[in-house]
Amino acid sequence: MAQDPGNRRGTAQPIRISTQPQVLVDSIGGRDKFDFYRFKLNRPGNIRAALNGLKTNADLALTNARGKILHQSNRPGKRKELLTAELNRGTYYLRVRGRGGNTRYRLRLGFNTPPRLAINTGMAIGKGKTASFGQRLLRVTDREQDAKKLVYTLTNQPQNGRLQLNGKAIAAGSQFSQEDVDKGRLKYKSLPDRTRLVRTSREIRSFEVSGSNIVWAASDGNDFEIYHSDGNTTTQLTNNEFDDFAPKISGSNVVWQGFDGNDYEIFFHNGSSTIQLTNNGFDDIAPQISGSNVVWSGFDGNDYEIFYFNGSSTTQLTNNGADDASPQISGSNVVWAGFDGNDYEIYRYDGSTIVPLTNNNQNDFSPQISGSNTVWTSFDGKDFELFFNNGINTVQLTDNNRNDVSPHISGNNIVWLGTEGVKQEIYYYNGSSIEQLTSSATTKLSPIISGSSIVWQGFSNGNSEIYYYNGSGIEQLTNNRAGDVLPKMSGPNLVWQSQQGNTNELIYRNLATTDSFSFVVADRAGGKTDGTVNITIG
Predict the structure, then answer these.
(1) Domain 400-510's class?
(2) Distances in Å between the alpha carbon of 521 and those of 9, 145, 148, 348?
(3) Where in the chain are the domains?
(4) CATH for 9-112?
(5) Cα–Cα distances in angstroms (integers) from residue 457 to residues 66, 208, 287, 424, 425, in the given order
(6) What is the pLDDT of the chain when averaged over all its residues?
(7) pTM for the complete prediction?
(8) What is the pLDDT of residues 443-455, one digit of tens each?
(9) Which of 323, 336, 366, 491 lies most in the core, judged by the most C-beta atoms within 10 Å?
């Protein structure tokens, strides 16, 4: 005769949990309010318990050795109770609790070990090359299930290349099996070192980069349209009879200003479709984007005000009788320069409140923001200096006899131009000290920073060239007869315009030496494990 389960943990019936399903049949009710079952796990795994066959209400709970409830199922009436849990080694209890009269029940138990990441050696690959993963590079095993039933879900996709399944690019959320890996269906294609995105005799007006996504405005022969590239494929986002320009990009999200026949409006593309954010009788201009958040300057019939779109709705941040201009955005933080009746001051919106960062009798302008850090240029009565606010306090970064202008910020790192007469040099603030990066008589323009890497436009032998600082040294990236101008940078991704005669080109370079992607792999019984594959590019 089977042992009757005890009414408390101390008298619990011992059971053995295995990968083979088992069913326990018993009854509960009246004075027999509880049935306890004790089991011990020698290895981590996933347990599944189902209580059914009920005539009256009963509940199911899982506790640890001390009686703390870890999971429970309390469905009303005679409905089936079900719980699953990922457990480590140790002793546990299942508790059946009667809520009404006497009832028989069936307690069905199953145990499954999670998949194990057995091999993850990473990959080494050359620039612009494609290689297959196989079980020698990436392999997950499972005691109970075969490769076809072990399914990977991509949680973070690579940034400097593309994962392909059966020759088609896949993104975060896509799935593939261990069988796909074993049979070479999963491949990685690294981005080439250098790609010519555009070659045209028509004008290219502006461009931006975010990761390996690039956006630009170029003439189609009639007007300016917006184009997007993911580093491999170019897509035309607009096709109309009016000018679209000033595009900005964050990830795969793009914003720009477009003429609608009467005035300029703001348009937003989320990677798959385009929506019009504004529709009024006044100009909306100078859009900026961070994630799905957008900010711009819009005329209200009297002056320019700041407007903010949070991904779902638009808010007018300012409403006064003076111009507010030059908005910049990072996350939900927005900065701009606003006229106070005497001069321009700097203001910041932190997602809920507007805070003035300056209040003086000199013009403050060119604000740039990264997180809650803001840098701007201010006239001190003699020349232009830089000021920095970390979200709490403001400090003056420069105090000299030269003009410090064109700041750009990434985290705590700032780059700018210091000009003295005709001499221009690049200066870098690393969060604690200032370093002069260049020392020559040539002109420098357009410094951009991403992390601790910096790119700028300089001159050599009468030509404009692109220079790159990687945190330790300076490299001249171009050396040709063309004019290479207006560099943009996002991480290891660089874009600039190359001009020679009537030919305009957009050049994209990927300087990455590493890449990675992350995943969760699950079996069909609820077991899961995760991992990250590291890729070396060279």
Answers:
(1) mainly beta
(2) 35, 13, 12, 43
(3) 9-112, 116-191+526-537, 400-510
(4) 2.60.120.380
(5) 67, 15, 24, 11, 11
(6) 95
(7) 0.81
(8) 899 999 999 999 9
(9) 336
